[in-house]
Amino acid sequence: MSAAPVTREQAFANARAVLDEALDRIARDRASGRLSPDAELSIRRAERRRADRTQPRAHRTAA
Fold first, then answer.
1. 30 and 40 in contact (C-beta within 8 Å)?
2. Domains of the chain, residue spans
């Protein structure tokens, strides 16, 4: 009567596929100039935040 449960791996793969499709659509809209200035600004801010998180931090050594 009930469907088989979705595995964690499958759930993540499904979510990643949906996210990738959305990012592709946003990239196409951005390239064709269909985004509003507010949306473009929001995307640039998000990209900057992500770049800040993915850059390795320089560790300071104790003096």
1. yes
2. 8-54
